[in-house]
From TrEMBL:
<dbReference type="Pfam" id="PF07929">
    <property type="entry name" value="PRiA4_ORF3"/>
</dbReference>
<feature type="domain" description="Plasmid pRiA4b Orf3-like">
    <location>
        <begin position="2"/>
        <end position="172"/>
    </location>
</feature>
<dbReference type="InterPro" id="IPR024047">
    <property type="entry name" value="MM3350-like_sf"/>
</dbReference>
<protein>
    <submittedName>
        <fullName>Plasmid pRiA4b ORF-3 family protein</fullName>
    </submittedName>
</protein>
<dbReference type="InterPro" id="IPR012912">
    <property type="entry name" value="Plasmid_pRiA4b_Orf3-like"/>
</dbReference>
Amino acid sequence: MVYTCRIELDEITPKIWREFQFHPDVTFHQLHKIIQTVMGWEDYHLYQFHVNGQIIELPTPTFEDIEGREELNARREVVQKHVDEENSVFTYVYDFGDDWRHTITLIKSDLSTSDPTPLCLDGARSCPQEDVGGVWGHQHMLEVLLTPNHPEQGQFIGWIREGYDPESFSCEEVNLELQRQKDKLIPKSLVKLSESKKPVKLTKSVLNKHLKQLSNDQLIDLVKACYGASKDMERFLAVRILGDEAVESLFYEYQKKVENEFFPERGYGKLRLKEAKQAISEFERLTGSVKYSLELKLIYVENGIDFTLTYGDIDERFYYSMASMYAGIIGILNEDETADLFDEYEERIEAIILKTDGIGWGFHDNLADLHTQLRWI
C-alpha cells in the first residue's frame, strides 16, 4: 500500500509543488525526511506537522515548560494513524524563522502497489534557498537576479547554491536520492535484514590484483567512472592531477564552509560545530595538505573566538571544541621539524591567547597552558 500526495509551498506563484508516493506506515519524522528530499531542502532547521488540530514534531527542551503546549513525537507517530482519508489536507512547516508553510493533500491510497520505496512522480520549479528570508526574501532574490545591473546582484550571486535555477526540477535526481536513502525512509518492519550475508569489503590486495589485470583502456574507464561517482572523488582526482592549484582552490571552498557556520553572509551562524569540523577533516583527507589543514583549524578557532566575543559566553561544549582544535594546532606545529610553520603562524597563535583573556569557563587558561607546550618557545 502507498499514499500518493501533492505538496505545495504556500504563498509563492507560480507554484512550487511535487507529487510523490510513500508507505503510510512511516513515521512523521520519516515523512519529514522524504519531504526534505522531494522538495530540495537541506534539513538545517526544525519542523512541525499540523494535522487535525494537533502538532506533531520532535520534542525540544526549549518548549517543554510552556504551560498548555501539547505535542506528539514525530518519531513515534505513524502517518496512517492521523491521515487515512483521500483528500485529507494537513500542513508541514519548515524553518520557524523563514516560516516555510507547505500544504499536503492525500490524493489517493493505492492497495495494489507493494514497493514501499518513496517515489517522486512529478513537480515544478526549484526549492527556494535556505535562509533566504521566507517568501518575501525569496521573491526579492528572484527580482534582484532577474534585474540587469541590480546593485544587490553581486551579493546574491556569490551566495546562492551552485547551479541554482528557479525554474528547474528533476524527478530523476530526486528519485536517485530517495533510492539511496531507502532504508531510512520506509517502515522499519519492512527493512530487509540478512544475517546470513557477511559484509563485502574490498581489500587493498584484492584491488591491487584486479588493477593489474586491467588494460590501459580499462584503467582509464575506471578512473573516469570514479570521477563521476561522487563530488569527493572529483575533488580527490583534481588534487592528484592538478596539484597545488587544485588544493588552493579547494581550500577556499572549505574555508567558506567553516566560516559560514559562525558568520554566514546572510543571517546568523548556525554554530554547527560538527559540520565545520567534518569539513576540515574532509579537506585533510582529500588533499593531505598539512599547511592548509592547519590554516582551516586556525580559522575555526579564530571564528569561534570572534563569535563568543560578539554574542557573549556560549557553553562548555563550545569552549571544549575550541580548545581541542587549538591543541591539534599545537600538535601539528610540534611535529614540524623545520619550525617553518611556527614561524609563519606564530603571531596568530599568540593572538588567540590574547583575545581570549576574560572569556569564561576557564577557556583562556586552557589555551594558555596549551600554548606553553609549543616546542619552539
